Amino acid sequence: MTIVESLPPRPLSAKELMDLNRSDALELASPIEEEGDASGVIVATDSWVKGLVFDEDGGGWSVVETVSLSDNERIDGLQTCEEAILAFRGESVSDDE
């Protein structure tokens, strides 16, 4: 089962994000939203970072970006995935500042 297949068919609650962070499969699960349920999540292992988006119109969770950490630093992967999530939503990093 992939990470996307394991997610519920709705945005994630704070408790669900904490549970993902405690799982053995992931090293990091972080929302891009500051408040409320998370419909944009960055997840990471020691080998990759993925940007996930919940799209109600598209029928659920999708991977919008995957960055391999073999050639990249984790921070670069996190930033790339956040930018991909925002671009998917039609937002930009500067919109949040």
TrEMBL record:
Tell me the Pfam families matching this sequence.
DUF7964 (PF25912)
Annotated DUF7964 domain ranges read 4-88
This one is known as DUF7964 domain-containing protein
Where does this protein come from, organism-wise?
A: Halogeometricum borinquense
Q: Which InterPro entries match?
A: DUF7964
